[in-house]
From TrEMBL:
<dbReference type="GO" id="GO:0008237">
    <property type="term" value="F:metallopeptidase activity"/>
</dbReference>
<dbReference type="InterPro" id="IPR027268">
    <property type="entry name" value="Peptidase_M4/M1_CTD_sf"/>
</dbReference>
<keyword id="KW-0482">Metalloprotease</keyword>
<keyword id="KW-0645">Protease</keyword>
<keyword id="KW-0479">Metal-binding</keyword>
<dbReference type="InterPro" id="IPR014782">
    <property type="entry name" value="Peptidase_M1_dom"/>
</dbReference>
<dbReference type="GO" id="GO:0006508">
    <property type="term" value="P:proteolysis"/>
</dbReference>
<keyword id="KW-0862">Zinc</keyword>
<feature type="domain" description="Peptidase M1 membrane alanine aminopeptidase">
    <location>
        <begin position="71"/>
        <end position="217"/>
    </location>
</feature>
<dbReference type="GO" id="GO:0008270">
    <property type="term" value="F:zinc ion binding"/>
</dbReference>
<keyword id="KW-0378">Hydrolase</keyword>
<dbReference type="InterPro" id="IPR050344">
    <property type="entry name" value="Peptidase_M1_aminopeptidases"/>
</dbReference>
<comment type="similarity">
    <text>Belongs to the peptidase M1 family.</text>
</comment>
<dbReference type="GO" id="GO:0016285">
    <property type="term" value="F:alanyl aminopeptidase activity"/>
</dbReference>
<dbReference type="InterPro" id="IPR001930">
    <property type="entry name" value="Peptidase_M1"/>
</dbReference>
<dbReference type="Pfam" id="PF01433">
    <property type="entry name" value="Peptidase_M1"/>
</dbReference>
<protein>
    <recommendedName>
        <fullName>Aminopeptidase N</fullName>
        <ecNumber>3.4.11.2</ecNumber>
    </recommendedName>
</protein>
Amino acid sequence: MPSRLLVSQQLGPTAARASMRMLRQSPAIVEGLAEDLGRYPFSAAGGLVTGLPVYFALENQTMPTYFAVRRGRHVPLVVHEQAHQWFGDSVAIERWRDIWLNEGAATFMEHRWTETHGGPDAAQWLQDEYDARGPGSRFWQMRIADPGHDGIFATPVYLRGGMAFQALRNRIGEDDFWLLLQTWLREHEGGNAATEDFEALAAEVSGESLDGFFDAWLHTGERPARTADNGLA
């Protein structure tokens, strides 16, 4: 598969070398993500580091765009943007309110990558993030399945969304969870899908009633109770 890794000529030598070092992780990361998510959905891959003064990355199809770096490997960043090739670029959301499906999945896959490459497992990450925020925290007040037009890129959409994926993994078990993600990506490849579609498929694949789980994690502006039904016990 063709792989293009491009760094802006506007960058100085230090930033150019560090940025290319970051990009060169992309092929291995794409290959690793495919082991969990199924076949890479496009015929080319790669990445581009811009010389523009931006401080965010963007999941452009087959060529994620990154800001320039001067040191470090920035593995979670590359994992996040490459995960979007599946969640967001291959399967697009039906409405902006469904954006947790993209950002939550990409955030979760960062921690999945960490657990498979010598770091803490994603279940521990979920527990740590949950414990760090009490019931009164503003973090829990956003209904991430409908965050409002001012909230679509808010931290809870990414973080609580990612936590919801791991909590669902805890709730329905390893085999059903990965079957769910692979089925979701295969059935909706090249199309659009909504939160309700994901909820219905999760119930179908697992054979469980998950209305209470999704209400707690996606549709309620309060901290999910620490229960097995919510993937937290």
